[in-house]
Amino acid sequence: MPGVSARGLSHEARRQLAVNLTRVVTLYRSILDAYIIEFFTDNLWGTLPCSWQEALDGLNPPQLATLLLGKPGEGEVARYRSVWPLTLLALKSTAYALAFTRTPGFQTPSEFLENPSQSSRLTAPFRKHVRPKKQHEIRRLGELVKKLSDLTGCTQVVDVGSGQGHLSRFMSLGLGLMVKSIEGDQRLVERAQRLDQELLQALQKEEKRNPQVVHTGPRHRPHHVVRWVDPTALCEELLLPLENSPQSEARLLLTGLHACGDLSVALLRHFCRPEVAALASVGCCYMKLSDPGGYPLSQWVAGLPGRELPYRLREGACHALEEYAERLQKAGPGLRTHCYRAALETVIRRARPELRRPGVQGIPRVHELKIEEYVQRGLQRVGLDPHLPLNLAALRAHQSQENRVVAFFSLALLLAPLVETLILLDRLLYLQEQGFHAELLPIFSPELSPRNLVLVATKRPLGETFSVLETEDS
Length: 474
What we know:
By secondary structure, the protein is of the alpha/beta class. A 7-stranded mixed sheet has the order 3-2-1-4-5-7-6, with helices on both faces. Helix 1 packs antiparallel against helix 18, helix 4 packs across helix 14 and helix 7 crosses helix 8. The longest helix has 32 residues. The protein is globular and about 70 Å long.
């Protein structure tokens, strides 16, 4: 998806971008703030301008992917069946122009061409127990952290929210970095320690089988710490050096792979401490940000009208636009899930008007169910009588609007990257207001990992650092 590169934007250009984003988000807030499951109860289609309805009505999913989301199928050329209203074209152009680009400096990763489940860029021991998406992420982020560590002279990496330790293991046992892993869940830490031992044994066996392959670099096992990091207070454990790194010489690099909600904000605040020389953070789960506290962080964004991002907008910013566009191109029956759920909401509201948007546990194989069968199962899951009399004619009428539901959801997805851009831009401006230097890089393939923008910060000007960090995959 085209967009604006955060790199190279002046401080004033970043401020102006924030102004533009808040204006656009305010203008289209009704779309961003809508819940697709209320498509029928709140007549969401009727909230769109009539000219938009005419342009979008009847478009099938592949046409929506191509014409609205700008994701044509291979060899496909965009062809409009009618002249779209200028306001809809302006929305599309604005969404493309103001969002940070999520296209990395490398092509679709070649690492999975031979085997879609095994990265060719990781040796077998580092792939074990790791899904393809995570293989791609730990390799890309780990290699960036290694380059950043070398460029800034950091002596220790602190992996915050380390989970089962996949990134920590790759950075320590694969790249030779000194790593401290901090995770609040004792069970995950115990699992990480078991996997550490398993990986060490696998590496030792590999060396015995291939004695000609000599491991020349240091091999440090990650140091695991069980500790919750409070986003509102400094965590001294996070800042303490390891025993073999004297306090006076410690230069820390903080990293977090998809640091959830306020955890990514905590990383920014800890970066302000003198012990920390660099930061490489990939945020996630924006809906879990504290309000206030997690956003806005910068004085500039805090002073802008229209800066408010309620829960629904932040939750929408976590959706996978590229993955959904691919689903649209395939036009599979799974796309009807939103339509079915919206139809179920009408039945729930008739039975219990006070029950709004209840959580419905996943109903398996939705595409194989008739709409009335889905509704009956859904009623049971929310504690209502599954044998309630159903208006089958109304349900069929809802089902006939499936493409409209998909079109409205696609509009919301088109705008969602603007919300993510504003959140991340606020973080860049916050760091700049503290006198630091920060950039954003698309580091992962967005098809594999939708939250693919890494915030890189240093205490001194980055200079030529990014020419090294942005080295393309071979």
